[in-house]
Amino acid sequence: MLYYSKAQISQLMELVACNSLHSATQRVSRWLLHTDDRMDGPDFPLTQEALSQVLGLRRATVSAACSQLLKNDAIRYSRGMISVSDRAKLRSFYCECYDRITARSFPRPMSCTPLVRDEDA
């Protein structure tokens, strides 16, 4: 439990720093990459309004960031659906916080066994 708590606090500190230091496009890219990591496919329901509330940005700012990502073919979006069309291009916009937060996302002690074994999959 202590290991999990330390990881959560570490992630939170990284997010606070990211939100204060990086541009809106970098923050939107980071958040979309994290969301894409957790989804089964490249498409997920998400409005710009919801994204603006999650990131603490104005909707117009999120719209401008998404337009930049759309123009560079990193994402596609239409009426409440966002699709990551090219992760490599999206990663070119993200900040280095994505890698640090991802490394701390699901920490496990080395002695833990995986929940799903390769032969079960």
Structure write-up:
The protein is mostly helical. The chain has a domain at about 25-95: Winged helix-like DNA-binding domain superfamily/Winged helix DNA-binding domain (Arc Repressor Mutant, subunit A, Orthogonal Bundle). It has six helices and three strands, in the order ααβααββαα. The protein has helices at about 1-20, 25-40, 50-55, 60-70, 85-90, 95-105, and strands spanning about 45, 75-80, 80-85. Strands 1-3-2 form a three-stranded antiparallel β-sheet. A hairpin with a 2-residue loop joins β2 (about 75-80) and β3 (about 80-85). α3 (about 50-55) packs across α4. Residues about 105-120 have low confidence and may be disordered.
